[in-house]
Fold each of these.
Amino acid sequence: MTAKLNITLGQHSEQGRKEENQDFHGAVVPKEPQLKNKGIAIAIADGVSSCIAGREAAETCVGSFLSDYYSTPDSWTTKTSAHKILTAINSWLYSKGQQHEDDPRHHSQGMITTFSALVLKSTTGHIFHVGDSRVYRLQGNNLECLTTDHRRWVGDKDYLNRAMGIDVHLEIDYRRTELEAGDIYVLTTDGVHDFISDKEIAQLILANNNPDLAAKSIVQFSLDKGSTDNITCQVLRINTLPVQTANEAHQELTRLPFPPDLEPGMVLDGYRILREIHASNRTQVYLAEDQQTSQRVVIKTPSVNFEDDPAYLESFIREEWVGKRIHNSRVLTVYNKDRPRQFLYYVTEYVDGQTLRDWMNQHSQPDIKEVRLLLDQIVTGLRAFHRLEMLHQDLKPENIMIDATGKIRIIDFGSTKIAGIAEITTPIERIALLGTVNYTAPEYLLGQPGSNRSDIFALGVIAYELLAGKLPYGNALEKADNPAAISKLVYQSSTRYNPMIPLWMDRALRKAVEPNPEKRYSVLSEFIHDLSHPNSEFMHDTRPPLLERNPAGFWRGLAIAMVLLNVVLVYRLLV
């Protein structure tokens, strides 16, 4: 039977000899599907005692983190989710701290707290840390501190040199660790580790098999050893990790059977099939009518050719997952399930229009302003993917629809990479689909991971093709499957095919389709801006090199020069 992530948690806190307990701690163990998609979160904080709002700072930091983390998109990585949340919390603490500084009743240090968190997702632990609280890991008899205290010594005293709320800019340590069943993690404030040794912490845990008893024992022992600070300890033991066999994964994916061959007039779960729109060896797409609303919709079904292929099935299900999480007018809408389904398929909006490829075939020389408007819409849709840490990975004219009013929709999410899902361990071998030849970024061809720049490459090729009617490297990318071949790619200036294109715009296109991703645009906004506004970096060139403007003329001229040179050399030898 499939195992799930399961822990036993113990927590205890005492104010000790202080007048107030300014430590704060918490944990969230969610139910499915958040247990799988987001994991378990544990956090601890120690408000700076010299601040009158130290307790509020610690409580805000822990409470907000544990609440807001589970509100972030499932498509985000754990690191992205945590950093965005902690940056926002830090800004709030710093702002409130500045207000306290103006109030003579408050201490000058504002709202400052240490913070350490451990997020257990799938089989990986994610540690976020700032300040001098600590995160330990106990494996067997070996206790290892996984964090570094952010302290600075001045004379015989030490001070925090990094903490939440201390500065408008937040620098937080991040670390990943592979989880193992039986591992024990310990989170402590300095009221513990400043007064008892790591060896004593380990001995207390090993002497108390119950994490709750272990946490209480560590707190009490710290008190007995003379701790003068608030004392907080969290102890968690990993009982089981999420483990699923390939057979179990396949059974889960095939919970619903494949639908039968659909013909016009057939009814599938309340949808009447009108006609087949498209069919390939991977999917079938049908136009249908919702009998409840009379609305026209599109039904996409998987191909029976892949009925026993778990990787394909996961990819098909992921398409719906992606579409239901992107809410953007320039991305195809995937409808939520509003009725029981007997078969595996999903339902999308119907776009009454044509693909961008068909549009390009009908508009061989579109106006530059018209092209910009189309690209603006594509960027709007693509940006929706990137904001959710998704890469489309198969952007091409065939995967862009234009409706009768000229509005764009990005379609087909079968190749989409989801950063947050990639963190979840699976027995299914995820096959990276490389997109389509001539639109695929060179880094994919070399087996390297993609990034936003990879989608920008595909967008750059589309922009070039819209303006010039050609491809920036001809068909050379079809054979560029090694570093040597990619290094020989020669960009062909778009002005060669369309003299109406300004040189600065051609330079923007060239930067977008740079074979080296490090030289490419890093964000969509820069590219789309440079297509409409001359970039000063591109203005020093008066005209493209002859090799770009006229490759045939360049090589013809070079050949003539070589012939003349040979004639001169022969003449000198004879003379």
Amino acid sequence: MYIKIFLPVFVCYGFSILNIFSFKLKRDIRKHLSTIGSFSVLILSIYILRIHLPLFNQWEKISTFFAILISGISFLCIVYSQWYNPSVNFVYDSLFFIFVGSMIGVVLSSSLIIFYIFWEIMTISSFFLILYENTDEAKSASIKYIIMTGTGSIFLLFGIIGISFAEIPNLWKHILFLSIFIGAGVKSGIFPLNSWVPEAYPTAPTPISAIFSGIMSKTGIYAFIKFYFAIFQPNWSVIWENIMVIIGIITLLSGVLLALIQHDIKKLLAYHSISQIGYIFLGIATGTSIGLLGALYHLLNHSIFKSLLFLGSGVLIKLTGSRELEKYGGFSSILPFTFLAFSIASFSISGLPPFNGFVSKWIICQALLEKKTGISILAMVISLLGSALTLASFIKVLNDSFLGVGKGKIKEKISEKTSFLIIPLGTLAFGCLFFGMFPGLVVNKIFAPMTGNIQTLNIKLINAVSLWGYISILIFFFLYIYLSKSVKKFKEKNVFVGGERLSYEITDFDGSHFYKTVYETNVIKEFYEIEKKGIFDSYSISEKLLNFTSKLSNKIEVFVRDEIYRKGRDLIYFITERFKSFQNGLLPRYILWVIAGLIFIMEVLKRW
């Protein structure tokens, strides 16, 4: 059975090799080859769950859930790649399948050694995917990524080796947990190990950015869930529980605050990825079944709406050739389908009912409330604030990208009437609605077998709140239709200054500078200034520490060479000069020294 479980991995690696050997084939042929391969991996992942579900224990069910999620998002991204990157060579597809296969291998491995081997393959293949476009920005981001994740892998390996011992002293248990925390935390992007995220996500090709945010970060979450719940056991340390909640709060809040002021759409989405990981981490930190349920539910939802947001941003980037929000505007009429899908994803990530993000955030908040500690209540309040700031951020994005003033120059005409665009965007948008509309079905059929039935979870209350969300959407929809037919168009008048008519580009405004007042707020401004200095950047701090260590070691070397060596040399010269007085060249004195030495040796031997 163990070999059958790895069938999706074998197929991924097989199609990777097939792409290498078929490098002479035309792109039109290879794109169908890659699509078929990715779809086969998805079918095999579902097949494993379907056939072996009665035999699986709790963690094998969680592993298979992750495998289906990885293969599903990957399939949609490879389909999207055929539209977004029509001219990529076989290297891209080959690396893609190695990357996806290694992620599936990570979550399906029952052996920690095999788990770590796939983890390293995933790290290396993702490094080359970040570097794929070979720009200066990509080179810098890929180097930072491989150094940080490579260091994290070393910590993870140390933790894996340590927990293999039967009995672990309490002090070593804390050390090993910290090691696992760092190793998994770097990959998932939790504070303060996330400085590679806003650099690697934007520079990678957009379909890869969607996979990084949608599913690669979840392998880190999977690793942490596995070690925390299956090995260390929840609530094993009150200190660590509080530390985890604090880190979840900081990750959530810092990510959304930094996203709020971004002008680069992919960097903005990258910071929102960090923020949403904070929500997932808060659910895990509770250590309860309902917290795990909320974390897994939000992990699923985040994979869907964040992948959709990155793929939607790719349409804007392809249309304008730019990632800057200032270069967009008024594209709702040009890209109506993308606008609809992007809007659904924006409302989902903001946690508005009846979209999927609302359900999972509700469950996480309930888990925090049930802990009934001061820090968990604070975390719940911060999570609500984070949702409000997320909504504010995406109002800016929607205004700049699809509404507002059309300042963007179209670089390439785009038709949305292609299955390579409709299938991934449409499927993900449907997922945002489905997992928000039917929380009871999702919890009972998907998550209950993994976490057990949660008696305190009130699905009826969630549905009741969602109902008001449906009603609100319907009211706004019918109101829009009514106003568009009954209200007369506004008169447009020119604006003159000094007798000259000003253009609409000058008189109208965009939303790129929304929330500038937030930046000027005293406490928040200090946070932004500290972040700008790189104080929260663990990579930058490590660089400075290494430079300091290098300078210190250089000074020590100079001190040893110039002080200790020189003074030691002078001492030896002094001693040898004194011994020269014994070497006067007279034979009787040498005989005297020999006799004295023999007497000393005999005296020592006699006493011994």
